């Protein structure tokens, strides 16, 4: 992935955060998924007055990718961007999003702003060490 490609993914994530429904917190998040098949899918966060009923940008982007490419969709790269009241914010994926990212991208790279507002790049396993897994038995 070249720097130009990363810049395009960052731009797409920043564009997506502009669509966020963040009426209560003012914290807008945008995410973009680049799939192994070459698809590009964006998502934004959607809040609800009952906070637990909101939806994260990362999982919304993943859902759009699964809808388009099917359950075999695999994440190559994901970029996350956030603003609060117009100011750029650090924003790593939450724990629930990390679990979903790992499910669809066990070798995915996730790019997000750290505390110093510089972009960090981490693998999905680095984001979620000792992740929960479920071995499904096949057969009768």
Q: Please name the CATH topology.
A: Cytidine Deaminase, domain 2
> What is the helix/strand order?
HEEHEEHEEH
Q: Give the total of domains.
A: 1
CATH class: Alpha Beta
CATH architecture: 3-Layer(aba) Sandwich
Q: What gross morphology would you assign?
A: globular
Task: Tell me about the largest β-sheet.
Answer: 6 strands, mixed
- What is the alpha-carbon Rg in Å? 15 Å
By DSSP (H or I, 4+ residues per run), the number of helices equals 4
Structural class from helices and strands?
alpha+beta
| Total beta strands | 6
Helix residue percentage: 25-40%
Write the layout of secondary structure elements.
Layout (H helix, E strand, L loop, with lengths): L2 H15 L9 E9 L4 E5 L12 H13 L5 E10 L2 E3 L5 H10 L4 E5 L5 E5 H4 L13
Write structural notes for this entry:
The protein has 140 residues and is an alpha+beta fold. It has one domain (3-127): Cytidine Deaminase, domain 2. It has 4 helices and 6 strands. The protein has helices at residues 3-17, 57-69, 95-104, 124-127, and strands at 27-35, 40-44, 75-84, 87-89, 109-113, 119-123. Strands 1, 2, 3, 4, 5 and 6 form a 6-stranded mixed β-sheet that branches. The longest helix is centred in the first third of the chain and has 15 residues, at 3-17. The radius of gyration is 15 Å and the shape is globular. The termini are far apart.
């Amino acid at each position: 992935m070249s720097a130009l490609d990363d810049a395009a993914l960052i731009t797409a994530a920043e564009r997506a955060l502009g669509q966020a429904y963040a009426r209560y917190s003012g914290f807008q998040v945008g995410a973009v998924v680049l799939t192994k098949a070459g698809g590009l899918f964006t998502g934004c966060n959607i809040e609800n007055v009952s906070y637990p009923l909101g939806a994260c940008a990362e999982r919304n982007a993943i859902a759009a990718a699964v809808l388009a490419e099917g359950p075999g969709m695999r994440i190559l790269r994901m970029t996350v961007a956030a603003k609060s009241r117009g100011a750029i914010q650090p924003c790593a994926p939450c724990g629930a999003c990390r679990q979903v990212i790992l499910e669809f991208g066990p070798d995915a790279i996730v790019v997000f702003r750290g505390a110093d507002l510089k972009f960090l790049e981490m693998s999905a396993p680095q984001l979620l060490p000792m992740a929960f897994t479920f071995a499904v038995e096949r057969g009768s």
